[in-house]
Write a structure and sequence with these properties.
Distance between the termini of chain A: 33 Å
Number of strands of chain A: 0
Largest interface: B-C, 37 and 37 residues
Structural class of chain A: mainly alpha
Oligomer: heterotrimer
Helix content of chain C: 55-70%
Structural class of chain C: mainly alpha
Strand content of chain A: under 5%
CATH class of chain C: Mainly Alpha
Number of strands of chain C: 0
CATH architecture of chain C: Orthogonal Bundle
CATH topology of chain C: Helix Hairpins
Number of domains of chain C: 1
Number of domains of chain A: 1
Strand content of chain C: under 5%
Number of helices of chain A: 5
Shape of chain A: elongated
Distance between the termini of chain C: 43 Å
């Protein structure tokens, strides 16, 4: 991966190690999300881990390196879309069963990956919402300068 | 079906604004206004449909039964509150369309506005303690951000003060909820009430009373907890000041206090006496501190402290007449205080200052603002054909008939003080000799319309006092509050009291 | 009971910090301590001696009476999120205040009075 900002961030050792670990952290977050309805964890915990992988990258390489690859505007939009999808899930439940946020999909068989109705779906939405939201909070706090202008 | 709309419509609107309106800022106002209008209409529908449902609509979310899920409950009191909140919200949003041109980041403003509305509607509808806390935090959170919206030194300072105090007391409320949960193993309000009623009064409950009075008392801005209000409310943009002073302190404060202490805990005497004391203190201290203020909006902030005291003593009397007075004053204060804040916003918009010493003689140039401000002044000081007169009269009569003659006299005297400091506003801002501030801009159409509608409502809402309307629409609300644990009895059939499955 | 009282003590430590400290960052930390004490209290409420995790798992048949109470844990998760938001907002406000006043000391940040 080409780095246009080689002087930002931490030392070469940290950057090299980060190159290996950041994917592991990201994948672990996704695992937690996908198995959210079967094991401890879920959308929120997984989303936090996904956000932490971005934070990890930002700390090691500097924020410009990350922002070159992910658009802040896209992150904002993705967060809003995830939030809208969460609310829409609730509304769909309302119109199918008459209860807000009711589980309108088949529950399936216990202990299998595709079960628990809409919960895996919601977990993914929540993951996107929390991951993007948390990273943006981190980014905005990190981008404050002590003096204005 | 109808109840969850109050929550998901503004919530959806908030995120749609974030998604679509960042590039096209006029979208933001359109979406926000449409959402506000929708829920205003729905809240009227809910209010008039309620009697045919036997006075209570209960909606379990997610298809489980309470106490295993969160329920939304609409009864007479909450449907009335919904109308008050959404009416003021709609008019404030309408006013904000043009007012907010003075700021940057229109979409931010409307998204936060919608989130605040979501929180308030949620607090009104929810029947679950923890859910109440969550919605309260949503609306407070947006309120902190909106107070700091101008990002000037004073605004940031006020927002930090507000956020600190708000966070401390919210934690207290959560602690109280934890203690209640440890005693009753449930979070549904009606179930908590049921178990407390059947299980006697544990000593622990007094700690909960204390924590809740401190927590919700701060949101209400009763006197020992009022320090944030005169900073935070004037610092916000004018439509938000109108929302904060007009409905937020009533929803998170008075409504939550009434719902929890009357309907869940059955109005314990000790709490009523404490509220009585705090209310009286608020009336006196807020009233006298208003006189010495020279900042237009700060004066209105102290006036809110004083007026909310009237509402609280009305409820704290515990008699039907007192509660009627409290409810009426809550409604009327929402109208005339939002009107006065919108007026102050119009003055600031036109002249770029709100220091009364620099203003003066504006009545010729700002005709609409000055006329509506006059209506607001007459209402808040209780001059007969306007609405404030009736509510204050009822509260004072209720005080005297309940044997609290001293408090009645204090309430009547502070009413004169109210007239005094609003005449000060009239003299220094609108009449009297011309000040150094010049009228730089005209007040735009949307702002004028919102103010005129509110001024008209100041007169029209007095019509609630016509006996037949009062009997049909206000008495059921009073009964909901007076009936104490009748709320629990109404929810009880919906409770699933089977063992854990 | 001692544990619960310790929670309340920690809560009071937070209140003390929030009221007496003069530094904006310390106030934010004190509010954090208050939040943690409440979260600790809620998690302790859920504890049941000898009980196991509230998870259904193949081959591990725990009866409902032998599980710890999962509800306070869900509550704690939610309240942590809320605290995260409050802390982030207050930190942002503190930074903006620092930009305006050049100090974190609240005795020097006094534009508003009364």
């Amino acid at each position: 991966m080409q780095n246009n900002f080689p002087n930002e961030g931490m030392s070469v050792i940290v950057k090299t190690i980060t190159r290996f670990t950041v994917w592991l952290i990201f994948l672990y977050g996704l695992y937690i999300v996908i198995h959210g309805h079967l094991s401890p964890g879920g959308g929120f915990a997984g989303g936090v881990i996904v956000a932490l992988s971005y934070v990890h990258l930002t700390l090691a390489y500097g924020k410009n390196f990350v922002l070159e690859r992910v658009d802040k505007f896209a992150m904002n939009s993705l967060e809003a879309i995830a939030a809208i999808l969460i609310v829409l899930t609730g509304i769909v439940g309302l119109y199918i069963t008459g209860y807000f946020f009711a589980n309108f999909m088949g529950v399936g068989k216990l202990y299998t990956l595709l079960s628990a109705g809409y919960i895996p779906m919601l977990n993914i939405f929540i993951c996107v919402k929390v991951g993007m939201g948390l990273y943006l909070v981190f980014y905005y706090l990190a981008s404050f300068k002590p003096k204005e202008g | 079906m109808i109840l969850s709309q109050f929550i998901f419509v503004p919530l959806l609107a908030a995120f749609l604004i974030v998604l679509f309106a960042r590039k096209k800022e006029n979208f933001a106002a359109a979406i926000a206004l449409a959402a506000c209008a929708w829920i205003l209409i729905v809240s009227f529908i809910a209010f008039f449909k309620l009697p045919s449902h036997g006075g209570m609509i209960l909606n379990n979310t997610s298809g489980w039964k309470i106490p295993y899920t969160i329920c939304l409950i609409l009864d007479n009191l909450s449907s009335f509150m919904l109308i008050v909140v959404n009416l003021v919200a709609f008019l404030s949003a309408f006013y904000a369309i043009q007012y907010i041109n003075h700021f940057t980041g229109k979409w931010n403003f409307f998204a936060l506005f919608m989130l605040m509305l979501t929180g308030m509607n949620g607090v009104i509808l929810t029947g679950d303690f923890f859910n109440l806390y969550v919605f309260m935090e949503i609306s407070l959170f947006s309120a902190y951000a909106l107070v700091a919206f101008g990002t000037e030194s004073e605004e940031l300072e006020a927002a930090f003060k507000y956020a600190t105090m708000g966070a401390i007391t919210s934690t207290m409320i959560l602690f109280g909820i934890g203690i209640l949960y440890s005693y009753t193993s449930t979070l549904t309000m009606a179930d908590v009430g049921l178990q407390l009623r059947s299980g006697g009064t544990p000593k622990m409950i007094f700690l909960v009373y204390g924590l809740f009075i401190a927590g919700f008392g701060l949101k209400t801005a009763l006197v020992p907890f009022h320090a944030w209000l005169p900073d935070a409310h004037p610092s916000a943009p004018a439509p938000i000041s109108a929302m904060l002073s007009g409905v937020l302190i009533k929803t998170l404060g008075v409504y939550a206090l009434v719902r929890i202490f009357f309907n869940v805990f059955g109005a314990p005497t000790v709490v009523l006496q404490i509220l009585m004391l705090l209310g009286t203190l608020s009336i006196v201290i807020g009233g006298f501190l208003s006189i010495v203020q020279w900042d237009f909006k700060r004066l209105l902030g102290f006036s809110s402290v004083s007026q909310i005291g009237y509402v609280v003593i009305g409820f704290a009397l515990g008699t039907p007449l007192g509660i009627l007075g409290g409810i009426l004053h809550l409604f009327y204060h929402a109208i005339f205080k939002s009107l006065l804040f919108l007026d102050s916003g119009a003055v600031e918009y036109a002249t770029d200052t709100r220091d009364l010493r620099q203003l003066g003689g504006l009545s010729k140039e700002l005709k609409v603002t000055s006329a509506t401000n006059m209506v607001g002044t007459l209402s808040i000081s209780g001059i007969p054909p306007f609405n404030g007169f009736f509510s204050k009269l009822i509260i004072i009569i209720a005080c005297i008939s309940a044997g609290r003659i001293v408090i009645g006299i204090i309430a009547a005297l502070v009413s004169i003080v109210t007239l005094a400091y609003f005449l000060k506003v009239q003299k220094h801002a609108f009449y009297g000799k011309k000040g150094s501030a010049k009228v730089l801009e005209k007040v735009p159409f949307a702002m004028k319309t919102a103010m005129i509608i509110l001024a008209a409502l100041c007169l029209i809402s007095s019509a609630i006092m016509i006996p037949s309307i009062r009997k049909n629409y206000l008495n059921p609300i009073v009964e909901t509050v007076m009936g104490r644990t009748s709320y629990i009895d109404k929810v009880e059939p919906y409770l699933d009291n089977g063992s854990v499955k | 009971m001692i544990l619960y009282l310790m929670c309340f003590f920690l809560f009071l430590v937070g209140v003390y910090g929030a009221i007496t400290k003069r530094d904006l960052i310390k106030i934010i930390l004190a509010i954090g301590i208050m939040g943690y004490s409440v979260n600790l209290f809620l998690v302790l409420l859920a504890y049941r001696t000898g009980a196991l995790v509230p998870i259904l798992k193949k081959g591990l048949d725990i009866p409902a009476s032998m599980m710890v109470d999962p509800l306070p844990q869900a509550i704690v998760l939610t309240s942590i999120v809320i605290e995260l938001g409050i802390t982030a907002l207050m930190a942002a406000l503190a930074i903006r205040i620092y930009q305006k006043y050049d100090t974190f000391d609240i005795t020097k940040i006094r534009r508003l009075q009364g």
